[in-house]
Amino acid sequence: MDETFDESIQEANQSAVVVGASLSGLMAGIALARSGLHVTILESAGAKPRSGAVLQVDSGDIDRTLTAKALRKLASGGMKSVEAWSSVQSRLRAEAKSHSKIDLRYDTRVQTVNQDNDSAWVMTDKGETFHGDILIGADGHRSTVRRHVAPHNPNATFAGYVIWVAIVDENVIPKEHRPNRNAPRVAMPDGIGDFLLGGIVAGTDGSHDLGHRRLGWAWYDNTQNDLLRRLGCVEGNVVRHSLNATDIPEQTLIELAEQASHRWPQPWLDAILYSIRTRNLTGTPIAEYVPDKLVKGRIAIVGDAAHVPTPLTASGFNASLQDAATLADCVAKGIQGIAATEALLEYESLRLKDVRQIVQSGQSFSRSFGR
After folding, report:
1. Which of 83, 220, 262, 299 is in Cβ range 3.0-4.6 Å of 195 for a Cys bridge?
2. Are residues 30 and 150 in the same domain?
3. Whole-model pTM?
4. 305-316: per-residue pLDDT in tens?
5. Residue 361, class by beta-carbon neighbours within 10 Å (0-12 exposed, 13-18 middle, 19+ buried)?
6. Are strands 110-115 and 120-124 parallel, antiparallel or unpaired?
7. Could you tell me the residue range of the domain that residue 42 belongs to?
């Protein structure tokens, strides 16, 4: 465990329930536990590690507190580079599982959220109830907890485009097309009509040696909205679910391969074509959410449950980290009695303006690109 967290917090029997064990939920749970709270983290998915695209984790110059700096070090592994989402999650998950004050539970789907003057709680689909002095929603852009905090504004809205994402081993790319050792870790190759983000990350064994790395790519595509609605991924202006590889129509894959061949340079073209050929890709309809509140009583929201910017802003991870650090620093002052609601209101006052601006900064792109 990293010892740069503030250890001045006195031992207490105060507790928190965190709904969601993706990156934001794990960071929030770890920071709260390091602040002295007993934390229960509930995740609806199973314990099998999940995959994802790539993200930037090294913007440490924005960290102002010991808690934020320690979370950054833990999430990044001390490396300054783009990272595979799965690598970041693996580090955070290992920390949460090893912490004596954290109870991490998978296959636990929250159905209802409520609170009174003394505690907040959730009830699961199995009839279990989990209580805490505070309750934190980190359950993503389709957040159940957000519906309690902001019932007047419960849904993130479809931004009008999908992002195809995948990550492939470098050794599937022909040697003559592999990026050299000095190639930039992040690329935005010129295309025709769409946008592509590429990232070169360590292999699954952590190696950055040539031929052992991985290539992650994200293709912004505004031509699939009819398909997304036809398959139920989007209903009205609400994103319901992603488009998994097995559900992508064969004709769509053929068209994507043809478009890629005309639009993208190497090595990204080979990475995309390999992903299409092996059905190793996911279509993620992009949602956006501008919050007008983050807190209701003893319940607060963080990460994508609280704010959903377009990935083009590259700000989602950093915003989630700052949410977790700020929240923990606020509750570290104590959450007995009315102090719980006061601590969460302080968190809201410190984060709401910033996260609104983050989402709004990407909306001009979505309005021009999304259809």
Report:
1. 220
2. yes
3. 0.91
4. 999 999 888 889
5. middle
6. antiparallel
7. 15-155+289-369
